[in-house]
């Protein structure tokens, strides 16, 4: 099938800075000068605006992109409910600490049909809250199929395999230890160039992610704006048979599909502030204490939003004196969903928290190092040591209570029933009353 100006998937443009204006064109003179919607766009294209925020949002928050495409997105037949997709009926709000064994890959499922919701809160219809998903795909999406979510921005954490994500605005090739953010409404398809792929998804129903403010840290540190990458424009100008393309639309946590006679990947050029992007977690510049105690885990925040933060625990040096170095025991007003991309998390040495697994400690659910990790850390020689070598753990942290689906609690058969009994019940009493 002929494809014009098809860019190699691993070709990107580094942004001038995270959230900065960006433009790309596959054919010279595609982007108009001056008017965004000229009477006759160059090369016989259609102008289409993609709005990620309300038109009157403050300039610092306003996210809009103009695309110049062969046919507009509106040229499709009506969306119909797709009953092959299982929509969670109930979210259980429970204070129990939960941990899951690694989730299985489904050799037959593609991206759309491998999505499984673990938990969530709020409503996409009212643009409140979030959803947490696992994907475990064993097959590329069939030819001439595309997907988009109307429910929110999807932050994808790849744990295993490689995702070749063809978006309307160009390709993203996303590997383990990398993340991609796919904004609400942008269409894409997912191929698996190296076989099955598995990972985690945080879907943000409210607003968009941004970099955290650095405050006293200064102008550099944590995730630096220059390290985020955006796709370059490429397009398909082939003509297709009537109704040969299927577009899936995740809408209010249900799946709909519509057919059309043209590819959604026909954008020849685009410019604006609303686009997909990727980030290599290995580029994160960790900040920590060099005296005593250690900062709150917020110091590891990659991306932030009032609804949820994305936090990582990368390889790093610990040098504090007179300090219990693992995370302390705590109860938070925030909910913490944790996953492990690779290696071993330094606060969970008992082997129960494994790569491709997960844990959830909901609002005010007490948690912290397991008994083994506590004993080792309490007796450790506090010389400088590098923790997390070959490891990458992450956290979706939210001030909201995360409800858990039936699939997560029972149907997936991955919940560890002895999580509490094996982690904290073995803690020993060391108290000695002063004489």
From TrEMBL:
Residues 13-281 form the Homogentisate 1,2-dioxygenase N-terminal domain. SUPFAM superfamilies: RmlC-like cupins. Its cofactor is Fe cation. It comes from the Eukaryota. Pathway: Amino-acid degradation; L-phenylalanine degradation; acetoacetate and fumarate from L-phenylalanine: step 4/6. CDD domains: cupin_HGO_N (cd07000). Residues 283-431 form the Homogentisate 1,2-dioxygenase C-terminal domain. Keywords: Dioxygenase, Iron, Metal-binding, Oxidoreductase, Phenylalanine catabolism, Tyrosine catabolism. The active site is at 294 (proton acceptor). Its EC number is 1.13.11.5. GO terms for biological process: L-phenylalanine catabolic process; L-tyrosine catabolic process. NCBIfam families: hmgA. Belongs to the homogentisate dioxygenase family. This is homogentisate 1,2-dioxygenase. It comes from Apodospora peruviana.
């Amino acid at each position: 099938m002929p494809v014009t100006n098809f860019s190699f998937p691993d070709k990107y443009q580094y942004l001038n800075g995270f959230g900065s204006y960006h433009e790309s064109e596959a054919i010279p003179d595609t982007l108009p000068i001056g008017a965004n919607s000229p009477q006759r766009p160059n090369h016989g294209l259609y102008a289409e605006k993609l709005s990620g925020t309300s038109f009157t949002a403050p300039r610092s928050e306003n996210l809009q992109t103009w695309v110049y495409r062969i046919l507009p997105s509106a040229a499709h037949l009506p969306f119909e409910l797709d009953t092959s997709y299982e929509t969670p009926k109930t979210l259980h709000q429970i204070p129990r600490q939960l941990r899951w064994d690694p989730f299985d890959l489904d050799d037959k499922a593609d991206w759309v049909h491998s999505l499984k919701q673990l938990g969530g809160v709020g409503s996409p219809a009212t643009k409140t809250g979030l959803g947490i998903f696992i994907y475990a795909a064993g097959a590329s999406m069939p030819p001439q199929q595309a997907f988009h979510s109307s429910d929110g921005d999807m932050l994808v954490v790849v744990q295993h395999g490689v995702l070749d994500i063809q978006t309307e605005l160009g390709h993203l090739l996303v590997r383990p230890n990398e993340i991609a953010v796919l904004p609400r409404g942008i269409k894409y398809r997912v191929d698996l160039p190296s076989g099955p792929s598995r990972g985690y998804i945080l879907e943000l129903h409210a607003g968009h992610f941004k970099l955290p403010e650095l405050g006293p840290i200064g102008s550099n540190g944590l995730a630096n704006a220059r390290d985020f990458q955006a796709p370059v424009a490429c397009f398909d100008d082939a003509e297709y048979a009537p109704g040969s393309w299927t577009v899936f639309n995740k809408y209010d946590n249900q799946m709909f599909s519509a057919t059309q006679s043209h590819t959604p990947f026909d954008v020849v050029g685009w410019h604006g502030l609303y686009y997909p992007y990727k980030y290599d977690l290995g580029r994160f510049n960790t900040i920590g204490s060099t005296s005593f105690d250690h900062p709150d885990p917020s110091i590891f925040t990659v991306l932030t939003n009032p609804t949820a933060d994305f936090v990582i625990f990368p390889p790093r040096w610990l040098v504090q004196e007179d300090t219990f170095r693992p995370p302390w025991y705590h109860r938070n007003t925030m909910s913490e969903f944790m996953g492990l991309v690779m290696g071993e998390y330094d606060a969970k040495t008992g082997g129960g928290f494994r790569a491709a697994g997960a844990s959830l400690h909901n609002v005010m659910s007490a948690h912290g190092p397991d008994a083994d990790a506590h004993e080792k850390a309490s007796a450790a020689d506090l010389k400088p040591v590098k923790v997390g070598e070959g490891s990458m753990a992450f956290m979706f942290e939210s001030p909201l209570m995360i409800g858990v689906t039936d699939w997560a609690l029972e149907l997936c058969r991955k919940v560890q029933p002895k999580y509490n009994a094996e982690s904290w019940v073995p803690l020993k009493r060391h108290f000695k009353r002063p004489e």
